[in-house]
Automatic annotation (TrEMBL):
It comes from the Eukaryota. This is Uncharacterized protein. InterPro entries: WD40/YVTN_repeat-like_dom_sf (IPR015943), WD40_repeat_dom_sf (IPR036322), WD40_rpt (IPR001680), WDR53 (IPR042453). WD repeats lie at residues 236-271. Keywords: WD repeat.
């Protein structure tokens, strides 16, 4: 049973993150620029108002400086010190439309920000300027992530149903995968959702070897990211409506968590060794997904559409996930050992 974190927001909570380091915080972002910084057990919080005309849609926590958090709100990105009550250290504004997700690269020299226009800005944080502007998506770009150990590469996904691999040093896409080629239902599945495979969320495993992709047609696609080009592995089928969240917790390398518009949170055990890959050159021509033999190892019936989820370990070494939905509170679920 989950515990509620109440009293922070006045409207829907759109994003949540668990910061890094020994003095970690839970930070949640909501509509109308509301941001709340909670203790790791949720017992107390501080409330900030970043803007009156923008929603807090995404956050990125520094690994190198655990007190630093980047927050997207409307078209702006704020750099905050969450150990000093959310003090604003810097403000960046390079996107022309509402930002959907931000991400830090491994060395934290660059931050990527994708927006509703389909554009990705790669921002040089040292020089406070746009390093590159990436334009290939023909619709909303919803999600973006840098690749570990590949310092000039990132992956993006959008409402054009395309996965894009980028070399942002050259400002070009070198691999494009159309997920409409992966959306065919198996003959024995009656509950398949007939919706476009809009890409809501991407997540890379901690070592960068696997990419998970949550789509509007209730699927989670897995790709091997162990080589330069992505290669299709498997499709996970258990949600009955759009998968808006996929997340690899840092504390367990073989666990994938997915959250859906159906209000379900599913836990999967995934491995490159366990998932046989069909022939695929990373460009998706002719690739057909196999019927999934992988079932969730456990689930939580949250009951409301998932907006965002994050994971962490409390000071008492309790593993947990924290969930944001359309309500004004967060829900914290302890995970069994």
């Amino acid at each position: 049973m989950g515990s509620r974190l109440d009293g922070g927001h006045s409207d829907s909570v759109l994003s949540v993150i668990h910061s890094n380091g020994p003095d970690a915080r839970i930070v949640s972002g909501g509509e109308d620029g509301e941001l709340c910084i909670w203790t790791s057990d949720g017992s107390s919080h501080q409330k900030l108002k970043l803007s009156d005309n923008g929603d807090v849609t995404s956050m990125a926590a520094s690994q190198l400086h655990p007190n630093i958090l980047y927050v997207s709100c409307g078209k702006k990105i704020f750099k905050l010190d969450i150990h000093q009550g959310g003090q604003i250290l810097d403000t960046l504004e390079f996107n022309d439309d509402e930002i959907n997700q931000i991400c830090l690269n491994e060395k934290e020299e660059f931050l990527s920000a994708c927006d509703d226009s389909g554009v990705i800005r790669v921002i040089n944080l040292v020089e406070r300027k746009v390093q590159k502007t990436l334009r290939k998506h023909s619709n909303i770009c919803a999600t973006v992530c840098f690749r570990p150990k590949r310092p000039w590469e990132l992956i993006s996904g959008g409402y054009d149903s395309h996965l894009m691999q980028w070399d942002f040093s050259k400002g070009r896409s070198f691999c494009r995968i159309n997920l409409e080629d992966y959306g065919h239902p198996p003959d024995n599945l009656d509950s398949y959702l007939v919706s476009p495979p809009f890409i809501h969320m991407l997540a890379l495993s901690p070592d960068g070897s696997m990419l998970a992709c949550g789509t509007e047609n209730a699927l989670v696609h897995l790709f091997s990211a162990s080589k330069k080009n992505l290669a299709y592995l498997h499709t996970l089928r258990a949600h009955i409506s759009g998968v808006c969240q996929v997340h690899f917790p840092a504390f367990q390398s073989d666990m994938l968590i997915s959250g859906g518009n159906d209000g379900n949170i599913l836990f999967w055990k995934v491995s490159l060794d366990l998932l046989p890959a069909p022939a695929c050159n990373g460009h998706s021509e002719g690739a057909e997904p196999q019927n999934s033999s992988v079932s969730p190892v456990s689930s939580i019936k949250h009951g409301a559409k998932i907006n965002w989820l994050a994971s962490g370990v409390s000071t008492g070494q309790q593993k947990f996930i924290v969930v944001a939905d359309n309500s004004s509170h967060l829900t914290l679920y302890p995970l069994p050992e």
